[in-house]
Amino acid sequence: MTATAVPARTMRAAPTTRRSGGVVAMVAxxxxxxxxxxxxxxxxxxxxxxxxxxxxxxxxxxxxxxxSYGAAVGSKAMxxxxxxxxxxxxxxxxxxxxxxxxxxxxxxxxxxxxxARATRGPEESGLLELVRSRSxxxxxxxxxxxxxxxxxxxxxxxxxxxxLLGYGVDTADSALYASSxxxxxxxxxxxxxxxxxxxxxxxxxxxxxxxLLGVAYGTRAVGDVRDNGWKWLSPLAWQQExxxxxxxxxxxxxxxAFGVGIVLIGVGLRAAATRDLGSGLMASRPGPDRAGLVAxxxxxxxxxxxxxxxxxxxxxGLAVALVFGPLVRDVGAAVAGNPxxxxxxxxxxxxxxxxxxxxxxxxxxxxxxxxxxxxxAVGRLRAAEQGGRLETTLSQPIGRSSWLGAHxxxxxxxxxxxxxxxxxxxxxxxxxxxxxxxxxxHTLTAGLEYLPSIGVLGGFALLLFGWYPRLQSLAxxxxxxxxxxxxxxxxxxxPDAVLRVSPMYSVGNVPLEPVxxxxxxxxxxIAVALVAAAMAGFRRRDVPS
Length: 545
Known about the structure:
About 75% of the residues lie in helices and about 0% in strands. By secondary structure, the protein is an all-alpha fold. The protein has two domains: about 25-280, no CATH class; about 295-545, no CATH class. α9 (about 140-165) packs antiparallel against α13 and α15 crosses α17. The two termini are about 40 Å apart. Keywords: Membrane, Transmembrane, Transmembrane helix. This is Putative ABC transporter permease protein.
C-alpha cells in the first residue's frame, strides 16, 4: 500500500530525469537558485572591456599616437606584464594589450567561482547528497556546472566581439580574439573541475586555482621576456598567441586551448562519476582525536576556517611581486620614453616619476588582490550559514557577536598578511634593482595607506552579510568597479562623484601622488561604521536567512 501512495506526478517525472541523467534538472536548479553570479560575471567583464575600448578610442585618435603606443610597449620588460603586444598599433591590438592582465585574472577566477559554487560547494553543504537521492546521475551536477560555465564564457565572448564590431574593428579579427578568450575560459573550467574533484573543501579549490594561475602567469612572463618555449606551458600564452590583431593572425592555438580544456573536463567528469560523494581524490589528513586549546576556541576555529584562503592569496601576491619587482628599471625607462603611456597609467612619465608610475600600478594590483581576499573571506561566513554549520555553532554557548567578532579579527589579520608580505617583497626587489634602500619604506608605506579603502570593501561585504545576506555577491561587483576605476579611471572622462564610489580613489594614486590624509581618515571611519552596522544587523536577523 505504501508504493501506491507515491504521487503520480512524481512517478512520471522520474523516467524523464533518468533519460537525461538529471543534467537538465541540475541546470534548471542552478539557474533558479544561483543565476546572479553568472549575470554579474558576464555583464561585469563585458562592461569592463567596453570601458577599455572606449577609453583607448578616445585617447589614441591618430595613427601617430597608435604607433607611439606600439613602440612604447614593445620592450621585453613590458611584455612580462601583459604579454607580447601583438598588433598594438591599432585599436583592437591596444585594447587587447590593455585588457590582457585583467583578462588573465578575471577569466580563471570566473571559471573557478562558477565551477566551485556549483560542484564542491553543494557537495560540502550536503545539498548534493539530497539531490542525488533522486534519479540524478553522479556526473550530472558536474556536467550541468560545465555547461553553464561554458555558456557564460560564450556570452562574454559574444559581448566583447560585439563591442569591437561597434568600434569598427575587423569582424574576423574580433571573432578570433573573442574565441581565444572563450578558449582560456574552457581551459580553466577544466582546471577548476579537476581541482574540485581533487580536494574536499571549496576554499582549497580556489587555493589550487590561484597557485596554478601564478605558475601560468610566471611561465608566460619568462617565455615572453626570454623568447623561448616556456610560454607554451601556460594557457595564458595560448590565448595571446592567436595574434588576432597582428599582421599574421593564427587560429591553430585555439585547437590547443579547446583540446586541453576538453581533456581536462573529461578527466574531471570521470572523477566526479567514480569517486565517493563527499570525498576527494587526494586523501584528507586525519585530524586529532580532540580539538586543542586553540582550535577549540571560537577564535581558533576562525583561524582554521580562513588559513587556506590567507595562504592562497598571499602566495598569489608574492608571485606577482616576484615577477614585477625585477622589471622596475626597464618598465620605468619605457614609461619615461612615452608620455602618453605615463598619462594612461596615471602620471606624466617624466623623470623619477616614471618609476613611481610603475610602483603605483603594481601596488594597486597587490592591494586589489587583498580586497579579493577580504570579500572571499566574508563569503565563507555566508557559506557556513548556508551549509548549516553556523546553526550548529550557535547552538553551543557561543554568542553571535563573539562568533562574528572572531572572524572579523582573523580576516583583519589576514588582510595585513596578504597586503604587507607581497608589498614588502616587492619593495625589497625594487630597492635591489634601483640600489636605493629607501624604496622599501616608500613602497611599504604606500601599500599600508590603501588599507582603509580595503577595509571599506570588507565592511560593505560584512554589511550585506549582516543585513542582506542574499545580496552578498554585490560586494564582488563593488570590487570589480574599484578595479575598473583603478586601471581605467585616468583615461575615462567620468565625473568626480562617479570616481569616488571607488574607495581606493579617495586615497590617491600613491606613491605617485601624495596620499589624501583626509580621504584615508574618512575611509577608516566608514569602515568601522560598516563593521558596527554589520554586527548590529547580524544580531537581529534570522539564521539562516
